[in-house]
Amino acid sequence: MYFITKRFELAGCHRLDLSYESKCSRMHGHNWIVTVYCRSARLNADGMVTDFSHIKERITTYLDHGNFNELLPFNPTAENIARWICEQIPCCYRVDVAESEGNIAIYTIQGEGFYTGTPAVFLRFSGCNLKCGFCDTSHEEWREIDLPEILAEVSTYPSRHIVITGGEPSLQLDDRLVEMLHDAGFYIQVETNGTNRLPEGVDWVTCSPKGDTESVLRRIDELKVVYIGQDVEAIASRHNAFHYFLQPCSGENIPETVEYILSHPHWRLSLQTHKLINIQ
Which of the following is catalytic: 135, 139, 179, 213? Predict the structure, then answer.
């Protein structure tokens, strides 16, 4: 008896028709890891059980990045998908279908700025076009993911307030992701340094400028400046916003920040309350 195994990834979206209430009843996406097992008592004329490339092509050509509800004539659970794949592959006797590992988002409380205290899903993009000495965010490690996987992950949480941050999210955020998130019912807040334009349709723009950079944003809902004693009025003059916040630098200069705000009451205080109460 001869055995071969082929493992590949399959991306797509689906919704499940279930007899109980579930978040999976809403359209969402996944990256599935599929492992196909084949066996045969004899090798074919080419000396194979079956060609590895034929296994992947037969499935991915039809399903990959598709809507499984439209492509498959059954409720597209992982188990039903595994059964269908097994039926498509000669000599297949087993199929494993698993969701890809690794969280790409976290669910917590928005700790700073206008929406402090709001339950929110945080989606963090890697990479930044600036280097700031006081930056407290590690975003150098990354993995490449696609839009269905992003939507699947963020949709698992009950809040529909999403905060897209980084690094600098404007380097990657595009119209298609904004459209998909809106279709899924999300209110989109973006935290940006303001040096790149954002897609149309973002619901709330939080701009946190760094150094002497100029903003190219068409709209700023909330200007949030990390206060280190600099001329914040000069910064405000370059950024026309609806709301103005000063935030102590890593909580080290709260008295100085409060004193400045009391003397300049057009500013409001933003504290990193998530750090104060020790949550993520």
Answer: 135
Residue in 263, 270, 212 with CA at minimum distance from that of residue 243: 270
Known active-site residue 91: no
Please state, in angstroms and rounded to a whole number, the distance separating the CA atoms of residues 161 and 153. 14
Q: Looking at the DSSP assignment, which residues form a beta bridge with residue 190?
A: 164, 205
**What is the per-residue pLDDT across 23-73, written as a single tens digit (0 to 9) for each?**
788 777 666 788 898 999 999 998 988 888 888 888 888 888 788 899 999
Q: Is the pLDDT of residue 194 over 80?
A: yes
Instruction: Assess whether 116 carries a catalytic annotation.
Output: no
Chain center to CA of 122: 7
142 confidence band (pLDDT: 50, 70, 90): low
Taking CA atoms, 83 is separated from 74, 93, 192, in Å, by: 11, 10, 45
CA distances from 225 to 124, 233, 242 (A): 20, 10, 14
pTM for the predicted model, two decimal places = 0.61
Whether the Cβ atoms of residue 92 and residue 86 lie closer than 8 Å to each other: yes
Task: Based on the residue annotation, tell me whether 136 is a catalytic residue of this protein.
Answer: yes
